[in-house]
């Protein structure tokens, strides 16, 4: 149920991205009274603290202490033991989260509140290498070392559920793919979300309903990769807030219902130091060698990095035939059945990588993709020919893993993963995957009860 009222206040206020000076001026004028400092956890959710704005500017710009368990929990925020970073043996101590004041923006859904994204550091000043944002920065630096800047566009799918006494049900049941005649409550939600993103300074291209019950897709503007992932993390925060005000709950799950697949597709391109697009391509011509090397890296290396873009038990239920989620590591020209799709025209030609589901952490997803692409470029790898038929019947290519256990085996014991990411990173995220599997081995699901109780 919706109130029909937009989250946009009737009177204007400070909105969107703010510089450090603007932030300080707004705090002094009491237009901003509180500041959130957050960073992405392993699941991609922003976690942190909300500070009194004057206190934050007076005492926290050099860093605020937060419990290190924030990078050692499962999806339910239960602390996990056994990480090298932290655990019961180490006492779950603190690390220092240092704010990046260039990321400041005002949250439209919380008037007079700004949010700043930070990075965790050890007390000796060294970065926490398993921090998702740090991992992405490392791969962006690697690409710069090869002479390329990376541009990224995010395409997010999620399912909206309405709250009823009987539980959660999809906010609509019919196929509303590309629909323009939405029911009033769905139109209200889309408008509220649009207002929230615009006023928070998140540049987006489109909001549309999808073919599955309750499913929505949001596509974001193409640009700086770090900013794209930061925007997406704030977007998820906003979406939960907006949906909650409209009496709904968004599900960022790879397979939120049987037969429904929600993806997190990343559109990626490389640009040289002169600002020229490395993937530029005219129809009828061969793809540029740089793009072919990048595709080959994605196809050959991505199978070793699956827990970064398919991190949960649920992730692998998305990979179903003819679901628009890939089931094989293949590629094609404008082919939505493939794991890697070459799309766009001319200077806008780029790669759409369709492996990740909605449950994935965008920072980690892009980390995996860039590591694979860089390897392909460094080694000048050449891919198999593109898929030109039914991608789900392409038996010449490697199938996507059946479950997290299989993916973990190829990740945890992979020399190429160690080489590209670092052994500490592989051990950390492998341990998280083991914990995810252990949780599911111990718990009985509703589906099991329905099948087993007769």
Structure description:
The structure is a single chain. The protein has 454 residues and is of the alpha+beta class. It folds into two domains: 16-128, Ubiquitin-like (UB roll) (Roll), CATH 3.10.20; 138-452, Creatine Kinase, Chain A, domain 2. It is 32% helix and 21% strand. It contains twelve helices and 17 strands. It has helices at residues 20-28, 53-60, 132-145, 184-200, 225-245, 289-301, 306-309, 362-378, 404-412, 415-421, 423-442, 446-452, and strands at 16-17, 34-40, 46-52, 64-67, 94-99, 105-106, 113-121, 148-164, 167-170, 204-209, 215-220, 223-224, 248-251, 264-272, 331-333, 340-343, 350-353. Strands 8, 9, 10, 11, 12, 13, 14, 15, 16 and 17 form a ten-stranded mixed β-sheet that branches. Strands 1, 2, 3, 4, 5, 6 and 7 form a seven-stranded mixed β-sheet that branches. Strand 8 (148-164) and strand 9 form a beta hairpin. Helix 3 (132-145) packs parallel to helix 8, helix 4 crosses helix 5 (225-245) and helix 9 (404-412) runs antiparallel to helix 11 (423-442). The chain is globular, with a radius of gyration of 22 Å. The protein starts with 15 loop residues before the first strand and ends with a helix. Residues 1-12 have low confidence and may be disordered.
CATH superfamily of the largest domain: Glutamine synthetase/guanido kinase, catalytic domain
Shape descriptor: globular
Poorly predicted sequence stretches spanning 5 or more consecutive residues: 1-12
Number of domains: 2
> Ends: how far apart?
36 Å
Task: Output the helix-strand order.
Answer: EHEEHEEEEHEEHEEEHEEHHEEEHHHHH
User: What's the total helix number?
Assistant: 12
What's the alpha carbon Rg, rounded to whole Å?
22 Å
CATH architecture of the largest domain, by name, is 2-Layer Sandwich
The share of residues in extended strands comes to: 15-25%
């Amino acid at each position: 149920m919706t109130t029909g009222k937009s989250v946009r206040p009737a009177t204007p206020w400070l909105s969107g991205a703010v510089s450090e000076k603007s932030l300080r001026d707004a705090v002094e004028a009491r237009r901003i009274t509180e500041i959130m400092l957050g960073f992405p956890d392993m699941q991609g959710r922003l976690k942190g603290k909300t500070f009194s704005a004057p206190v934050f500017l007076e005492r926290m710009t050099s860093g605020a202490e937060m419990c290190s368990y924030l990078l050692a929990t499962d999806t339910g925020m239960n602390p996990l033991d056994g990480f090298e970073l932290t655990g019961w043996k180490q006492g779950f101590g603190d690390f220092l989260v240092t704010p990046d004041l260039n990321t400041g923006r005002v949250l439209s859904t919380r008037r007079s509140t700004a949010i700043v994204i930070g990075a965790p550091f050890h007390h000796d000043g060294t970065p926490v290498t398993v921090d998702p944002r740090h991992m992405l920065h490392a791969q962006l630096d690697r690409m710069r070392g090869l002479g390329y800047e990376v541009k990224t566009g995010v395409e997010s799918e999620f399912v909206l559920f309405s709250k009823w006494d009987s539980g959660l049900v999809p906010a609509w049941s019919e196929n509303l793919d590309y629909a323009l005649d939405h029911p009033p409550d769905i139109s209200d939600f889309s408008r509220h979300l649009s207002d929230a993103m615009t006023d928070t300074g998140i540049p987006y291209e489109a909001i549309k309903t999808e073919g599955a019950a309750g499913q929505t897709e949001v596509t974001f503007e193409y640009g700086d990769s770090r900013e794209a992932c930061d925007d997406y993390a704030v977007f998820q925060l906003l979406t939960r807030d907006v949906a909650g005000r409209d009496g709904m709950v968004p599900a960022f799950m790879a397979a939120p219902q049987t037969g429904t697949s929600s993806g997190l597709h990343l559109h990626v391109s490389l640009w040289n130091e002169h600002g020229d697009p490395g993937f530029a391509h005219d129809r009828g011509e061969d793809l540029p060698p740089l793009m072919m090397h990048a595709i080959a890296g994605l196809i050959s290396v991505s199978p070793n990095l699956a827990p970064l873009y398919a991190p949960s038990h649920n992730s692998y239920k998305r990979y179903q035939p003819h679901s628009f989620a890939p089931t094989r590591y293949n590629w094609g020209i404008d082919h939505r059945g493939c794991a890697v799709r070459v799309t766009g025209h001319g200077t806008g030609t780029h790669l759409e990588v369709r492996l990740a589901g909605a449950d994935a952490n965008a920072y980690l997803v892009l980390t995996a993709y860039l590591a694979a692409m860089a390897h392909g470029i460094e080694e000048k790898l050449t891919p198999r020919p593109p898929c030109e038929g039914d991608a789900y019947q392409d038996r010449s290519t490697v199938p996507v893993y059946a479950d997290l256990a299989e993916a973990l085996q190829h990740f945890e014991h992979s020399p190429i993963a160690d080489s590209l990411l670092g052994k500490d990173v592989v051990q950390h995220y492998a341990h998280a995957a083991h914990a995810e599997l252990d949780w599911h081995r111990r718990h009985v699901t509703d589906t099991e009860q329905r099948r087993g109780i007769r």
